[in-house]
Amino acid sequence: MQASRPRALITPLQLGLGVQVHHNFASRFLVSTLNSLGFCSSYYEVQKFESSAAAVQGVDLPGDISNSFVQFVADNVDHNTRTIDGLNTFHGMGIIAGITPGTKRTQPIPRIAFSTDEIKALAKIEIKYYKPQSDRMAELSYAELKKPKHTG
User: Fold this and answer.
1) How far is CA 151 from CA 1, 2, 144, in A?
2) Which residues contact 44 (CB under 8 A, 6 or more apart)?
3) What DSSP character marks residue 149?
4) What's the chain's Rg over C-alpha atoms?
5) 11-36 pLDDT, tens per residue?
6) Which parts of the chain fold into alpha helices (H)?
7) How confident is the model at residue 4 (pLDDT cuts 50, 70, 90)?
8) Which of 111, 120, 121, 146 has the fewest C-beta atoms under 10 angstroms from its C-beta?
9) DSSP state of 62
10) Domain ranges, ordered by start, for the chain
């Protein structure tokens, strides 16, 4: 159906195959070839879906998770860490929340074109530094320790 009228509708099977192929192989050529044969959506539609899904998912935990186990997992990545001038490096960090039992997302993902800058702006986390109201550590006093008796 999508092969006969490619701009009229987007079928879930073809879009899903395109997203999966792009996820597994990161190949524009492979997605475009499968699209020209009628097996999957175009590379543009796959990119549009991925950016829409990234923007719509957000960073909030879904619904009521009071009876769930939530584990946060974080990892970092560094590229070009040994450049001569110390520039042109990238340091990124990703954080996910794994929830058991899983929840099923029921709302559809709208087809909205997002720019890379808009997606980057959504993914930022504000870093808040802890600043105590008073310096309680300075108020602590310690008793002098007695020297241990050496028995020899």
Assistant:
1) 93, 91, 21
2) none
3) P
4) 26
5) 899 999 999 999 999 999 999 999 99
6) 12-25, 28-36, 43-57, 116-122, 136-139
7) low
8) 146
9) P
10) 1-58+111-124, 63-102
